[in-house]
TrEMBL record:
GO molecular function: 5'-3' DNA exonuclease activity; 5'-3' RNA exonuclease activity
Coiled coil, from the record: none
Organism: Candidatus Woykebacteria bacterium GWA1_44_8
Protein name per UniProt: Polymerase/histidinol phosphatase N-terminal domain-containing protein
CDD domains per record: PHP_HisPPase_AMP
InterPro entries: PHP_dom, PHP_domain, Pol/His_phosphatase_N, Pol/histidinol_Pase-like
SUPFAM superfamilies on file: PHP domain-like (SSF89550)
Organism domain of life: Bacteria
Length: 302
């Protein structure tokens, strides 16, 4: 069988559940040849991951997933691959993003307290080892027994982290707060400055809406991202079911080939909250062959 890979995973340095070495170990156990560790605005897990790479014989692609905002209510995640992650200016830029997230989280907590949910910053800081993201906040609220009564009154049940995020934490929601962010162009620029390749994460979510059961693709916006330097697309990524995933994969594969964009793929594995699939898409029809990484590497040299 062809060697398989997963170029989009998270560790506990953002909102993943595993340590970098446990993630690489798990990749070995399910026979993956390579993993991309792409924590949100964070590269703190890479040193440990690279050490584990040698121990377990699984290739680690040093990666990051930067959140960028062309406007205050639209979010695009840009994956950076093959980064010179030890670059000090790059690390400083990521640290500034993390600080902004921390400041924002404090405001969000205040908003949640004001509507009657118990959550405090100390618990959040203890839960999130690295970058604080929305699922951490949702998880803490949902898992505090003292919030159960209010959650049930509010949602009619104990909600999933995803349901809580949609009701309280997304733009326009009750507890939402903005933070200082970068545009896609700036995120792509940061990645390029350290020799990385910039790939749009999960276009099947970011650029595809579902209306009346039909998938609607925003290819025009993709052109704008390409104009500001985007190198490629996460073609092999999931949507909410197999049928829609097949349509999205085919659409972006075709587009990547027409526009000569690089192709990437990954499960967005977290093992926490409601985002992503199992590592290596273990529970799903979709798989990412090693050839995808080979092609990325050769495009990166061009
Ligand atoms: Zn993402
Ligand atoms: Zn991700």
């Amino acid at each position: 069988m062809a060697k398989l890979i997963d170029l989009h995973t998270h560790t506990y340095y953002s909102d993943g559940v595993l340590s970098p070495s446990d993630l690489v170990k798990k990749a070995k156990e399910i026979d993956l040849a390579a993993v991309g560790i792409a924590d949100h605005d964070n590269i703190d897990g890479l040193k440990e991951a690279i050490a584990a790479s040698k121990k377990f014989g699984v290739e680690v692609v040093p990666s990051v997933e930067i959140s960028s905002y062309p406007s205050s209510d639209t979010e695009f995640h840009i994956l950076g691959y093959f980064l010179d992650w030890q670059n000090k200016a790059f690390q400083k830029a990521l640290a500034a993003f993390q600080d902004e997230r921390e400041k924002r989280a404090k405001k969000v907590i205040k908003n949640l307290n004001n509507v009657g949910y118990l959550i405090n910053f100390g618990d959040l800081r203890a839960l999130a080892r690295g970058t604080i993201v929305q699922p951490h906040i949702a998880w803490l609220v949902i898992n505090d027994l003292e919030n159960r009564k209010k959650l049930k009154a509010d949602f009619g049940k104990i909600p999933s982290t995803g349901e809580f995020i949609v009701k309280y934490l997304i733009p326009g929601a009750l507890a939402y707060e903005t933070r200082k962010t970068v545009t896609p162009k700036e995120a792509i620029g940061l990645i390029h400055k350290v020799g990385g390749m910039a790939i749009l994460a999960h276009p099947a979510w970011s650029l595809v809406k579902k209306e009346n059961g039909k998938l609607i693709f925003d290819d025009e916006y993709l052109d704008q991202l390409v104009k500001v330097g985007l190198d490629g697309l996460e073609v092999y990524a999931h949507r909410e079911n197999e049928e829609d995933t097949r349509v999205c994969v085919e659409h972006y594969l075709d587009l990547a080939q027409k526009k000569k964009l690089a192709e990437s793929g990954g499960s967005d594995y977290h093992g926490f909250g409601s985002a992503g699939k199992d590592l290596g898409f273990a529970d799903f029809y979709l798989k990412v062959p090693y050839q995808v990484l080979e092609d990325l590497k050769s495009k990166n040299k061009q």
